[in-house]
Predict the 3D structure of the following.
Amino acid sequence: MEHPDNPLLVCEGIPRFDLIKPEHIEPAVSQVLEQAEKKITELESNIEPTWSGLIKPLESLSLPFEYAWSPIGHLLNVKNSKELREEHQKMQPKVVQFSLRAGQSRPIYDGLIAIRDCPEWDDLDDHQKRVIGLKIRDAKHSGVGLSGDAKKRFNEISTELSRLSTDFMNHVLDSTKTYEFIITEKTDTEGWPNNLLQLASQSYNSEKKTDESTPEDGAWRITLEAPVIVPFLKHSRRRDQREKLLRAYSTRADSGEWDNQPLIARILLLRKELAALLGFDCFADLSIDSKMAPTVAAVFDMLDELFNASKPHQVKEFNDLEKIASEGGQVEPLNHWDTGFWSERLKEKLFDFTDEELRPYFPMPKVLDGMFKLTEFLFGVTIKEADGEAPVWNPDVKYYKVYEAGKQVASFYTDVYSRPAEKRGGAWMDNCLDRRVIDGKVRLPVVYLNANGTPPVGDKPSLMSFDEVTTIFHEFGHCLQGMLTTVDIADVSGINGVEWDAVEICSQFMENWCYHEPILRTISGHWETGEPLPDHYVEKLRKTRVYMAASAMVRQLEFGLTDMTLHSSFDPEGEETAFDVHQRIAEKTKVIPPLKDDHFLCAFSHIFAGGYAAGYYSYKWAEVLSADLFSAFEEVGLENDSKVKRLGKQFRESFLALGGSVEPMKIFKEFMGREPSTEALLRHSDLL
Ligand SMILES: [Zn+2]
């Protein structure tokens, strides 16, 4: 159906980014919601428990949202405006409500169970079975299978938990925002980098509503926000001030009006009860039920293995810091507020280069071009510019098509320059359109690659830091999984349906290539002179990757172990508090005793206000797997083109092709011919 008046209602081709206006949102989304509501009600009153009778119609429900709603989410990120935000906010609660209602429909749930239990189940293929399995699992986790008192209690708990997590987050934000430490003595700022001087001075002016502060002469306002406190702890030469700030940082939201301590106890208690209602022993078991990791014990095994391997190196790294601190004239023994500072001094001494120095060697067009060439080589596809063939939201946006054996298989947008007034920061990947079948024809996937490089000026291209280079490889890894899918069911094509702890496998896999010298060579070269990246930088880049690797690893393990313990063996009604658990773990993970009043849990929003409850380990899990996969390429020899190509094809046909349609552990084992191992990650981090 064509609706020339409202581009959001055109359900074909690529979303009309050139025509979409904020005023289109409300009428289009209202209409889509109304029709979807009608269809789902019809479906519920007439359940036909078959693939074509139930699953197909459910899948087709999502299509109008793909055109009317998901482009709005994208535009909010890249072309934000007050009008767009207002129109989006008007409709968002309604869309969320509809998706909850669809996911929690009892008739549909019963229909899914009926399909699973009928004799025709075996006629379905594995992808279809997986789709139904995932739908049943998600519905079950949202309490659909419960009835009577259990259901009532489940809903009460869910409501309270959602309120608690909002309060938790607000407490963290408020206590972070409210704290300030004003510095007025210029001598106290010795050694600060320019952008810290700038930020702290800006912060002073905006908070005090004045313009009397300058970066050179102050005053400077130090806050607990990451862009300020992180460089402060690394560079402030005032040891007493570092102590003061670190203590303030690790006691955020732990008392007074923003006290998160009682919330933590309550959240853990409710989560345990919620898991029990769904038939799980603990909340960690519930979390793992929808993850790639097979069991809670397997997660602990992985964390312990990494810990045991890293611990001796962590102690050695600490000794190196003690040495440079004493050379630098510090007489007191190292404390927690010293490690960041001396680590930075040691880094300067060992590597002696700045991010800025490297930028001229990484012009963005060259980086992208090299990355596309690597992709073509590894996965046997061809990437062609196709500007003008798809609508764009900004003239800087580029459009590409991806071909395999002469046939188009996908396309993607790149939007890589910063536009601070309307675009969010950082780099990220997003789905534009899923691969799916419409009227018997495959519709190809489209994805976005977004970044925030400095826009080119005249002849001067956008110049990237090495960090930005690895980030763009990372995001393109997500893009590849979104594009090279061969699955035709939208629910599990591309990155859809991929388990949380497996989502980062393809992205981190791509990052590894940045450290391989021939690739590093193809993506670098001085933008003006063409001079290759000097050898000493190549060496240093590889070394900075493993600098203080054990300390960084153990810090993440402390978080992961604490999270997992609190959601499994910990008894919320027992003698020990959550803080005791953290202290007990921190005594193992820290080289010197933890601060007695370290209440970092009170600001651990990932697990108390975000989606990482009993899931923080996912970061390490995916890192272990992606390093392991990369090691298969190392084993055949990265210089061995024909063997690398053969493996690349295999990777393309497994991880990239299957996406969410097959359980990731199965894909992994088929690719590697064995269980995952931590060895490669430890070797890459120089921890063996
Ligand atoms: Zn990622």
The mean pLDDT is 95. The first strand starts at residue 181 and ends at 183. The pocket of zinc ion is lined by residues 474, 478, 504, 507 (CB under 6 Å). The longest helix spans residues 296-327.
